[in-house]
Amino acid sequence: MNPFRATLGSSPPYLAGRRDEIFDFAEALDDGPGSHERVSLITGLRGVGKTVLLNAFEDEAKSRSWWVISETATAGFTERIIDALFRTASDVLHTHKKQLTGISLPAIGGVQVTEAVLHQPKMTLRSVLTELLMWQEEVDSKLNQQSVGILITLDELHYHRCDEVIEFGATIQHLVREDRNIAVALAGIPQSIKPLLASQEGTNPVTFLRRANRIDLGMIGDDEVRKALAEPVIGTGVSWDNEALDEAVASCGGYPFMIQLIGQQCFKRRENGVITVKAVNEGMSVAKRKLGQLVHEPALADLSEVDRTFLVAMAVDDGPSAMSDIAQRLEVNSQYAGTYRRRLIDAEMIGSAGYGLVDFELPYMREYLREHAAITLFRTQDHKD
């Protein structure tokens, strides 16, 4: 069986480079209500491991017997969280029925938890969470056990759901102020989250996001990349040729999803139980193509036409691009080009590479644009100049 998992959001066999973030969150669960990391906001490009980190946070909560509600921030997510809370409460009651004699069941909005499927839409997320957390405190006391809380993870956060995010945030703020045993971890790509963090006329309805513990995920170091490639094959009867492993590490560029893509493709091409340089070269070609389909294509689709044109103008260069060259290729002034530079840096598509220079953040984006975009015109302009 191939030990690598080249599926976005799937937890890899070795989670590279995120030990500190997981430790801090776990400590916050143990430290009790009021710990800053109990409300965490994870941002980063596609494929850097946002969903995987949410999975790891959930595992930490589950290991402490916490309730864990995992949702995606699509329309109606608050109602789905309420539904999930009722189902979880019903499961808890069924599991501990004998131990919980003498404790009255929580009735929220006049509805017993055992009638979960019949709950009324008028109930708010705040009322459900408050009642269940109060009930859990009574259960903890009855069973003389360590305090159990509720963790809610919310993936793919987006400003298009601003109203629901505001409602959700207001609920969490109230519960935090009341010292309830609640924790929340949210994740999304930068351009989807930034409008939620932006201040409008000095106010922001989603202040809980601005106060949250920010976790900005980026690339990881080569030592961790090496472990993430080497450790999963241990015990499989397969080993890496040393030179092949060196090439694979360099090819990943510190990008978490690329580790899984390259690992998976190289493992498929092993020869007599050894992953060779040949396997890496062949696997790399396939991995880059899949990276384009799964990451580059949707990342570009999120951008405006001018944003994409800016990136195409950058792809002409073999390394970092000078802003003066980009402005010339786009036939715009430096101020106009600077506006889109800031937009793309905020979206974490590009980064500063020195004074007046920018470069791509995503590995192999330059190659993808060269294969799929019309950069010939810009190259012709450079030759004429």
TrEMBL record:
InterPro entries xref list: AAA_16 (IPR041664), P-loop_NTPase (IPR027417)
Concerning Pfam families, the annotation shows: AAA_16 (PF13191)
Entry keyword Nucleotide-binding: yes
The domain of life for this entry's organism is Bacteria
Is ATP-binding one of the keywords? yes
Q: Keywords in alphabetical order, please.
A: ATP-binding, Nucleotide-binding
Q: Which residues form the Orc1-like AAA ATPase domain?
A: 15-159
Q: Which GO terms describe its molecular function?
A: ATP binding
Provide the protein name.
ATP-binding protein
